[in-house]
Amino acid sequence: MKPVLLISAQFCLFIFALSTQALAGTCRFTELRLNSQSAVNNFDASCTSVIGNISIAGADITDLAPLAGVATIDGTLTIQNNTILPNLKQLANLTSTKNLLIYNNDLLTDLSGLEGLTSNSGSIHIRFHKNLTSLTGLNNLATARIFYITDNALLENLDGLASLTTITDVLMISLNKSLVNLEGLNNLSNVSRILIGENDLLKDLTGLSSLTSVSYQMHVSSNKSLTSLAGLPTSISMSELYISDNNLLTDLTGLQSIGYVYWLVISDSKGLGSLNGLNNLNSATNFIIRNNPLLTDLSGLDNLTNIGWIQITGNAELKSLDGLGAGEQSNSETGRISASLAIGGLAITNNPKLTMCAIEPVCIFIRQSTASISGNGIGCESQAAVQSSCGSLPVTLAHFSATDENQQAILKWATTDESNSSAFEIERSLDAKAWLKIGEHAAKGESTQLVNYQWTDIHPLDGLNYYRLKMVDRDGTYSYSQKRMLRFELNQASTFIYPNPVSDFLFVKNARNITWLSITDLRGKIIFETKKVPSEGLSIERIATGLYHVQITTQGGEVKTESIAIY
């Protein structure tokens, strides 16, 4: 029996030796606080794997060399309030931590020393640094769960994050007062939530060109210098989008890739005058347009076909719902073209200048359902008022289009129902705000069939031309169609008058060679004529606002005609 017992004892000693050797580099701490250079110096340099939390925070800490052997930390590494710590280069062997919190280290200019980190399963916080100018050091970080980059006063971009492709929960970029762009995130493709706020110098979203999926939320808010949302890729899927309190943002250019959102909130942006940029949005489950004081209509939402619920509230200058679901949709069974937007729920409140709510999608909704409508202008102050306007519309407009054919604007429209209709007045604008009547077409009057109409603007102006129809009833009531826009690139060599449009003085090229000039209205009536054109310009201040034709005859007998807008 003794030889057997001896062998057993030797085997147990061998196993114990192996276990001791395997655990030699592993150190366990519940909460190790290194609050001075002396405490750092006393750290066991043989520790390569730490289980537990380490906090490094001390006013005299300058050297992290005793931690140089640490490769993994199964817990939280906090480095904070180290006022004279120059860098993190002595952490070069660190390959993983569960959480990495780096706060308020006054002398840090970058994160060199963290190149070994490739992924993080918990949180990374880079916050409250006075002199941090670069995220160099995180160059190999590919994935993270939660990543905060906030309150770094001198950080101008996000260079150093070139390997980052995925954030499984939230990426927050906020309160970085010097951040001018998001360069450095160029390879980020997937994120659950991204919050971009209160970065005072951020002008656009340049740097997010690879972002293809925001599976939960994107917030862009309170960025004082943001003038554009450009920077997003041409294809992106997004569940919820919140744009708020970016006061230099005038439109939503940059969001052209958005086709569907579950939640969309556009709010509290003092400079926002247009929703252009959402032109490809076709469906939204919930949509709020709130407290945008310069917004006058809803142009940009033409291609919406389905809204689960929409709230339009507190927009002080909103005058019409023009642009909301103005696209066309054909019914293959009947061949008729109908209003393309379906609304599931509707609230229109506290828009004091909004007087025109009786657009086809709204009329269809309130015939079948109850909307919350109050606090708007006359004609849109209640559901009953809107229903009255819907019932009195002279026509049901099926579609309205404008096309450029041989430098002329061909306007086509059709009605599916007319009752007591009188005429269609054609109006044109250079800015979609000030409108002038340029023509008229008689209406059918009474019809329940599809009736097609066409009218041609033979003298469009160079540049943008906006068109709309004023649909007039025999009793004088009227409603407006949606707007259509065309851009004309006319032969500039033939232009002989400038500026156009004009408000005070009209100048004519080669004025000395002109023997006769006339200005006529659209009916052909001569408003002004002269045989001598002064080189200092013609005063047109006494001519009423409107569209006119200018005709000149040169000394060689050549006759030229050009259209002009006086405002």
From TrEMBL:
Start and end residues of each Secretion system C-terminal sorting domain: 497-560
Entries under Pfam families matching the protein: Por_Secre_tail (PF18962)
InterPro entries per UniProt: CWI-Assembly_Regulator, LRR_dom_sf, Rcpt_L-dom_sf, Secre_tail
Keyword Signal listed: yes
Keywords from the named record: Cell wall, Glycoprotein, Secreted, Signal
Major subcellular location class: secreted
Signal sequence range: 1-24
Gene3D superfamilies reported in the protein's UniProt record: Receptor L-domain, Ribonuclease Inhibitor
SUPFAM superfamilies on file: L domain-like
Localization per record: Secreted, Cell wall
Lineage top rank: taxon: Bacteria
NCBIfam families: Por_Secre_tail (TIGR04183)
Protein name (record): T9SS type A sorting domain-containing protein
